[in-house]
Amino acid sequence: GADGAFSFKNEAIHQSAMLALDSLLRAQFPVGGFPQVWVGPVEPHQPRQANYPQVDWRTEGRIKEYWNLYTLNDNVAVHVAHALRDAYEVYGDEKYLDALKRLGDFLILAQMPEPQPAWAQQYNPQMQPVWARRFEPPAISGHESQEVIALLMEIFTLTGDRKYLEPLPTAIEYLRRSTLPDGRLARYYELETNRPLYMKRDGDVYTLTYDDSNLPSHYGWKTGARVDRLQKMFNQLASQGPQPKRPLDPSSIASQVRRVISELDDQGRWISRATGQRLVGQTKFTKGEPYISSALFSRNLTLLADFIQATAP
């Protein structure tokens, strides 16, 4: 975006963008997936369809450096896909589109077989769900599965290749029948039994449980269900094919733009206030303590950039 806005003539921005994108491409496994963290060349593995572990996953298969494995956790695949999509739109280089297609091919392989045709958070080289953090067990993930379904539809929209739609009917139906009584989805469903799976915490010790009455507050154990919306999107794409992208109507976000501008302080910052809850690994703030959120900065800056682009002559 910024590189294109300067017509690729700002050397510092251009070189930084090229370094980042080249590094991203080198981080992609030949099979198409990405690790959560990249520190050097990735090791190629034999492509294979996702499958269930043949060991007791509760006590075996924990990998210390899980971040080097195929990862969908925290929407890694979605963020990477959007970076590749944007790079292709800005630079027009087919290598970014090819990388996006390979990621889509990996997501097809990563769909688990029946009775749970959806996706886990991370996989080992044998394409079996594995542990990540001590409260992230091998399981089917309601949250990441919804993100993958939406992403495969995005990849279809960009490529027109219907193979990216083929996994979706069974995945959507699986999520529909896995919806909890309160209308949400569990973050985790136990492998093969499909029972909603949670954790209880005693100090730093986490224990698997089916009981959701006293869950640790630092993690999203349940997620909003978007099954009907995903079904509607799929039906439209399957019947009508990819639709041309509509230009953004600036009036649709004008009120949001005014709001985020009004929320800037006298130093041009967006200040957040700590709620007292935090994810594991985050800085400890006392309740009400001010801080600057990079996530909020990114969202607001993207909103402003979209508005400027939509109103440009």
Give keywords:
9 helices; two-stranded antiparallel sheet; two-stranded antiparallel ribbon; 8 strands; 313 residues; mainly alpha
What would a concise description of this structure say?
The chain has helices spanning 2-5, 11-26, 76-91, 94-110, 142-159, 168-178, 227-240, 254-262, 294-311, and strands at 70-71, 122-123, 184-186, 198-202, 205-209, 222-224, 272-273, 290-291. It is mainly α.
Rg is 21 Å
What's the total number of strands? 8
- Helix tally equals 9
Strand content: 5-15%
Question: Describe it for me?
Answer:
There is one protein chain. The protein is mostly helical. It is 39% helix and 8% strand. It has 9 helices and 8 strands. The protein has helices spanning 2-5, 11-26, 76-91, 94-110, 142-159, 168-178, 227-240, 254-262, 294-311; strands at residues 70-71, 122-123, 184-186, 198-202, 205-209, 222-224, 272-273, 290-291. A two-stranded antiparallel sheet has the order 1-2. The chain is globular. The mean pLDDT is 92.
